[in-house]
Design a protein that fits this description.
heterodimer; A: 196 residues; mainly alpha; 7 helices; B: mainly alpha
Chain lengths: 196, 136
């Protein structure tokens, strides 16, 4: 899949890259990070114009993210009808209002695997659209310029960069899961300890 | 809400999350470490270097015009080495060309293109001895 898309990006340039990251923003699992790093390298090799590729990609991915946010926003009627008012729902809403900005920002480039759930949850919990847009835009700018920039810097050696970054993202996701799950397990264990 | 997720189910969920987290850390940690070691050995190529010379970076997802652009080898020469008409095939990857024109010879197109690019490169410049500066 990655190789086929790389060939097509070579052939059709920034507009195709924009279309792919837009579809990725909607939640379709495409190797967008690989393509962004490669696009940086193609820009270095003079095969893409870096500013048009960056501009088209940022606009497209933000539109895709806003659409998936909207899906959560407009589907929230069903979800809230079922769960609204329950302590867990209120807790989830409160927690998202607190941690939402960080999760939106970091899921754009560091833990991309959770980007879609974060978009949907932002919409469902009615996270302010303007704030979502702002954090989304900032995160995507870091993604495009950070990852694309590394591709640009390393040129023909971009695949080494990609190999490291894709594994690093998985490692960060593992750490997050362990911290979230482990913290809760430790809390239960502490509660179970008899009071001295 | 107790009817939706029980306390026991929550415990199972969080314990599963923790175990899954450890598996991910081990799996991606080892891979990231290996990739980092490989990454450490690489340095960004100098910006002054306009054309690529290392033919080992040629891969079968690349197209002939792309290789031609990066290595400075004329596309007619590359298509000529394969006896393929450039007009209808310039957007195809090396793998697609191989599957279409040489299905019985796996990797033939990639090998031929690498050899052609290498043959077209100018011979490396001999190291010129430094001219000794006149001693006063």
């Amino acid at each position: 899949m990655s190789e086929y898309l790389l060939t097509q990006v070579i052939n059709y340039g920034a507009p195709l890259l924009g279309l792919i990251v837009f579809i990725g923003g909607l939640g379709v699992p495409l190797p967008c990070t690989v393509l962004v790093i490669a696009a940086g390298a193609f820009a270095r090799q003079g095969y893409l114009t870096w500013y048009s590729a960056a501009f088209i990609s940022i606009v497209s991915v933000v539109v895709g993210d806003m659409l998936s946010y909207s899906i959560g926003y407009y589907a929230s009627g069903y979800v809230t009808k079922r769960f609204s008012g329950t302590p867990q729902w209120l807790e989830a809403e409160k927690s998202f209002q607190r941690w939402g900005p960080l999760s939106i920002f970091f899921s754009r480039f560091l833990v991309t695997a959770i980007a879609l759930p974060v978009n949907l949850l932002s919409g469902t919990t009615r996270f302010a659209p303007r704030k979502f847009f702002m954090y989304d835009l900032l995160g995507e700018i870091v993604w495009i310029f950070g990852y694309g920039g590394l591709g640009y810097l390393f040129g023909s050696q971009w695949e080494v960069v990609n190999e490291f970054l894709s594994n690093f993202g998985g490692l960060v996701l593992g750490v997050i899961l362990l911290v979230v799950g482990g913290r809760q397990v430790i809390n239960w264990q502490t509660k179970r300890q008899p009071v001295e | 809400m107790a009817g939706i997720v029980t306390e026991k189910q929550k415990r199972i969920l969080f314990i599963t999350l923790s175990i899954f987290g450890v598996i991910l850390i081990l799996f991606f940690g080892i891979r990231a470490l290996k990739a980092f070691r490989k990454f450490e050995g690489h340095r960004p190529p100098p910006f002054a270097e306009e054309l690529q010379t290392d033919v080992e970076t040629i891969e079968d997802w690349m197209t002939i015009p792309f290789i031609s652009h990066n290595f400075g080898t004329p596309p007619e020469l590359l298509f000529g080495s394969l006896n393929i008409d450039p007009r209808e095939n310039h957007k195809k990857s090396l793998k697609e060309l191989n599957d279409e024109f040489f299905p019985e010879a796996d990797g033939y197109v990639l090998t031929t293109i690498k050899a052609t690019v290498l043959a077209h490169q100018p011979p490396p410049m001999p190291d010129t001895p430094a001219i000794p500066s006149p001693t006063p």
